[in-house]
Backbone:
């Protein structure tokens, strides 16, 4: 007896038709179903100098599937390559690297990749991915580097690596845009925020951008760059909810606000948050260069027991100010802005989907890797939105991989059809089978 088992396990290498990572095929089929594979192939058609075995668009798709499946470097392509019955012929590591190098050497190809992703997003939205409210979150994050790499530098926290700026859609969790930056880039640089915002807007369908009835909201912790960022949002005809500095004028206005101006703050579930209040102090401030119609909303809250107060905490309260041009109740708008914390979840998922490790020495190559990571993140959330229900439709990458993507099965062929047989006792076998069925029931993309 070992570990309370009353049997021994004999191992024999004589199985037939067994495949692992069977659920990852759902991601590859999602890419095909929304037209992403075709769009990538058309965007990179000029790269294919001869009629070789591997189409460049398929190579990028397989790289994205590999990252969504948990890989973090080119050599992890073998997890897909070794499952040829499911994924077909997959490029070698050297072939994939040559393609990444070709894209990096021609800036127009990176733009072509992004345009292909935007067209696939439009198709995915038509199938049901489109969020009800379009809220774009912009945030930066730190990525460590353990060796000397081009662009890696010491950041404001004293660690070494990169400092990319990212943009996500809040409700649908889609990855809209990303800009790779050196580690010493400012966390809230207005120029970079505006550039990422422009790229994020280019990812939205033209019909959505042109619709006069649509509402698009930018959320950011803008700090000192708020003025430039808000003006850029105004120029793009979108609303904004950004963090606002607690200047001396703002602190004076907070202290002069009457007590009846404060109203109970809301939790994200709509209930009142105990110990927190919200007030609008716009009329107590003097605006000079801010866009017309700007409003300042302040939240005050008692720190949790044991929290260290700072010099900006007045009368035992913590304060956070929000600048917005949106109409509506101040309490509800403040609650909407605090939901910006969801961006931290998106960044965490991104680091589980290829962004934690930028594998190349050259900065331009890592830029392409970042773009492929964004594609992988989109593939995951599109598959969840279109094919899954309940907790699986919103779970994080590690959970999705354990329950579905890394599921093993037996692939059998009969009458020119392949049947993937899953272990009946696996708790999520039914959900995986239903996901494939829902995907097959979706209409094929035009073209």
Residues:
């Amino acid at each position: 007896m070992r570990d309370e088992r009353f049997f021994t396990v004999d191992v024999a290498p004589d199985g037939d038709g067994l495949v692992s990572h069977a659920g990852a095929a759902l991601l590859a089929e999602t890419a095909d179903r929304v037209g992403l594979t075709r769009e990538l192939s058309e965007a990179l058609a000029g790269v294919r100098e001869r009629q070789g075995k591997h189409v460049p668009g398929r190579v990028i798709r397989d790289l994205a599937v590999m990252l969504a499946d948990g890989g973090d470097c080119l050599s992890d392509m073998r997890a897909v390559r070794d499952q040829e019955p499911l994924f077909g012929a997959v490029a070698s590591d050297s072939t994939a690297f040559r393609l990444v190098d070709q894209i990096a050497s021609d800036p127009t190809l990176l733009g072509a990749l992004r345009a292909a992703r935007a067209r696939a997003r439009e198709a995915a939205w038509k199938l049901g991915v489109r969020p009800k409210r379009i809220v774009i979150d912009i945030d930066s994050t730190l990525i460590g580097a353990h060796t000397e790499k081009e662009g890696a530098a010491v950041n404001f926290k004293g660690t070494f690596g990169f400092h990319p700026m990212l943009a996500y859609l809040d409700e649908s969790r889609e990855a809209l845009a990303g800009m790779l930056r050196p580690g010493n880039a400012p966390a809230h640089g207005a120029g970079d925020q505006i550039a990422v915002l422009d790229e994020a807007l280019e990812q939205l369908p033209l019909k959505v951008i042109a619709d006069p009835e649509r509402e698009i909201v930018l959320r950011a912790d803008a700090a000192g760059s708020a003025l430039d960022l808000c003006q850029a949002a105004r120029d793009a005809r979108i609303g904004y909810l950004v963090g606002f500095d607690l200047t001396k004028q703002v602190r004076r206005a907070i202290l002069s606000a009457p007590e009846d101006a404060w109203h109970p703050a809301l939790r994200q579930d709509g209930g009142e948050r105990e110990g927190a209040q919200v007030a609008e102090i716009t009329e107590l401030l003097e605006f000079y260069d801010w866009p017309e119609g700007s409003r300042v909303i302040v939240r005050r809250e008692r720190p949790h027991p044991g929290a260290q107060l700072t010099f900006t905490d007045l009368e035992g309260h913590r304060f956070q100010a929000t600048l917005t041009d949106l109409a509506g109740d101040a309490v509800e708008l403040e609650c909407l802005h605090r939901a910006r914390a969801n961006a931290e979840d998106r960044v965490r998922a991104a680091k589980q989907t290829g962004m934690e490790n930028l594998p190349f020495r050259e900065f331009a190559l890592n830029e392409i890797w970042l773009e492929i990571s964004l594609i992988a993140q989109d593939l995951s959330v599109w598959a969840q939105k279109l094919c899954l229900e309940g907790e699986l439709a919103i779970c994080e990458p590690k959970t999705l991989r354990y329950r579905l993507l890394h599921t093993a099965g037996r692939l059998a062929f009969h009458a020119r059809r392949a049947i993937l047989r899953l272990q009946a006792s696996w708790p999520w076998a039914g959900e995986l089978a239903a996901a494939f069925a829902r995907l097959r029931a979706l209409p094929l993309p035009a073209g």
